[in-house]
Write a structure and sequence with these properties.
The longest helix has 21 residues, at 62-82. The protein has a 5-stranded mixed sheet with strand order 1-4-5-3-2, sandwiched between helices. 43% of the residues lie in helices and 20% in strands. It starts with a helix and ends in a 5-residue tail after the last helix. With 123 residues, it is an alpha/beta fold.
């Protein structure tokens, strides 16, 4: 039987889809704002790490918003390979205007700092 910690490595991640989960992260979670993105972290009872990515219309047109989401997704994939995430948390990443101009390794660096600051990475 696999434990919750092992599940994060077998699949990419479990996506947040419900608006109430995003709202819960915004209002009750810890946050860390960087120029590249904003990281929200809130504990959940699911026992697995769930991830949501949001991009607002201020980012740009659909192509630029999709690029921002792809960059954030790639950065998150590189982080979960090297670090041990807490398994009982919901993570929400909000793209900012600068995100679409950055490379995934630059966003990964800002994401790692943000995740450490909100306590989502085990040391």
């Amino acid at each position: 039987m696999l434990k919750g910690q092992d599940l994060i490595f077998l699949q990419k991640y479990i996506s947040l889809k419900e608006n109430k989960d995003f709202q819960r992260a915004y209002y009750r979670g810890k946050s860390c704002a960087k120029p590249a993105l904003v990281v929200y972290c809130v504990k959940n009872r699911a026992g697995v790490c769930r991830v949501g990515i949001t991009t607002g219309k201020k980012i740009g047109n659909a192509v630029e918003r999709n690029r921002s989401r792809r960059i954030i997704r790639a950065a998150f994939q590189s982080i979960i390979k090297d670090n041990q995430l807490r398994t009982n948390c919901d993570l929400v990443f909000v793209a900012r205007g600068k995100t679409k101009y950055l490379k995934s390794h630059q966003v990964a660096q800002a994401m790692l700092e943000g995740l450490k600051e909100v306590g989502a990475i085990r040391s």
